[in-house]
Design brief:
The chain has 15 helices and 16 strands. By secondary structure, the protein is an alpha/beta fold. The chain folds into two domains: 241 residues, P-loop containing nucleotide triphosphate hydrolases (Rossmann fold, 3-Layer(aba) Sandwich), CATH 3.40.50.300; 112 residues, CBS-domain. The chain binds adenosine-5'-diphosphate (ADP) and magnesium ion (MG). Magnesium ion binds next to helix 1. The site of adenosine-5'-diphosphate has 12 residues, from helix 1.
């Protein structure tokens, strides 16, 4: 489906980004490119949709030399997701996902149906999310929309350049799992770039470990783990950050995005509806400057609704929390054992960093423990 034949890229300033790269990617494969910063991962991806041109060699997509195809036509058949997400802020979720179908001249009804189908595929209720603006979504949700947008016009190939790189570890683990489930249904040819070895081993049918613009070793996650060809591969694969989480260390790795954050002037009934939709029992109250006012429980909200209060102002409880930078993993564990509810984590400036949950910590641990076994 995608083939690199002796591809070399020398940038204008003399940087040799790719050095005789040879690689064939089959239709329906999920291939992950990994390697140290600057080894040529992004450059390789950009060759596939012709954002960069080889200095020497040939890149083929679907058997055609990309240098001979109209770039606009080429890119319509290739989805592209980047770390910076790149959603247009003034367009709704529906309009963002529908960008390429719109360019292709699809009729409104067809685009709407496709958007709804994709949102549902990703577990987002279309009636709730279709009309939201990117600013009304969490970072994880925005990146989900970025992925759906890339899939909208049903491309053969999807390129993903560190798409989850900016997300917290638990939101990232959730999106990885969703992507694997999505791929089982859509069966695209996916080329995914990361510098996170856990992510590479979890997602890839095949992992391509690059170094200095060429392939150092490629194969299944098992192959790379069990038969590293040299010390470079061994040490690259060997990094296991889970075993480096120490009870006295900072809580950073355990923090996930708070699923529901609301402003103090929000209506309690609205919050209750969102909680039901999310199957959650707590919400964080945060003001427009990001400062944390407290955490609300279901019972507080039901009571406020009964009393016909029109805002959640003052409902947040502030007694159970962790503060950065001093909070340790042990502190988090003590609070979580005590009560199975999210623990909010507050930054030094009083803003909400996120929450720590029993479920999140369990998912993170399981995802790390099963790494390499994730690609069926
Ligand atoms: N437009 C450019 N001009 C000059 N050098 C570049 C350009 N883009 C990337 N490079 C260089 O090419 C090498 C490979 O870059 P890149 O493919 O972005 O690496 P990676 O994605 O693996 O971190 C790096 O040394 C980088 O600095
Ligand atoms: Mg890069």
């Amino acid at each position: 489906m995608v083939e690199f034949q002796n591809v070399t890229k020398v940038y204008d300033d003399g940087t040799r980004a790719l050095d005789q790269l040879n690689l064939t990617i089959e239709r329906g494969e999920f291939v992950v490119f990994i390697g140290p910063s600057g080894c040529g991962k992004t450059t390789s991806l950009k060759m596939i949709n012709h954002l960069e041109t080889p200095t020497e060699g040939t890149v083929l997509v679907g058997g055609q030399d990309v240098s001979g195809v109209n770039p606009v036509e080429l890119r319509r058949g290739i989805g592209y997701v980047i770390q910076e997400i790149g959603l247009l802020p003034h367009l709704t979720v529906e309009e963002n996902i529908g960008t390429v179908p719109h360019l292709l001249g699809w009729r409104k009804k067809r685009t709407r149906e496709r958007v709804d189908e994709l949102l549902a595929l990703s577990g987002l209720d279309p009636t709730v999310y279709r009309h939201r603006l990117p600013a009304q979504l969490s970072g994880g949700q925005q990146q989900r929309i970025g992925v759906l947008r890339a899939l909208a016009a049903d491309p053969d190939v999807v390129l993903m350049d560190e798409p989850f790189g900016a997300l917290d570890p638990i939101t990232k683990a959730n999106l990885q799992q969703e992507l694997l489930e999505l791929q089982q249904r859509v069966q695209k040819t996916i080329i995914f770039v990361t510098h996170d070895i856990d992510e590479a081993l979890k997602l890839g049918d095949r992992v391509v470990l690059m170094r200095r613009g060429a392939v150092e070793q490629m194969g299944s996650p098992d192959h790379l783990q069990n038969e590293p060809v040299n010390e470079f591969v061994r040490s690259f694969i060997g990094e296991d950050r889970l075993s480096q989480i120490s009870p006295e260390g900072p809580v950073d790795t355990l923090i996930e995005e708070a699923p529901l954050q609301v402003w103090p002037d929000t209506d309690p009934t609205w919050v209750l509806e969102r909680l039901e939709e999310l199957s959650r029992e707590t919400a964080q109250v945060v003001d427009r400057r990001g400062r944390w006012h407290g955490m609300m429980y279901l019972a507080d909200l039901l009571e406020a609704e009964r009393k016909k209060r029109t805002s959640v102002e003052g409902l947040g409880r502030r007694d159970r929390k962790l503060t950065q930078p001093e909070a340790t993993v042990r502190d988090a564990a003590v609070l979580l054992v005590d009560l199975d509810a999210p623990v909010p984590v507050i930054r030094e400036d009083g803003t909400l960093a996120g929450v720590i949950t029993n479920g999140g910590v369990a998912r993170l641990t399981i995802s790390r423990l099963t790494r390499g076994g994730g690609a069926q």
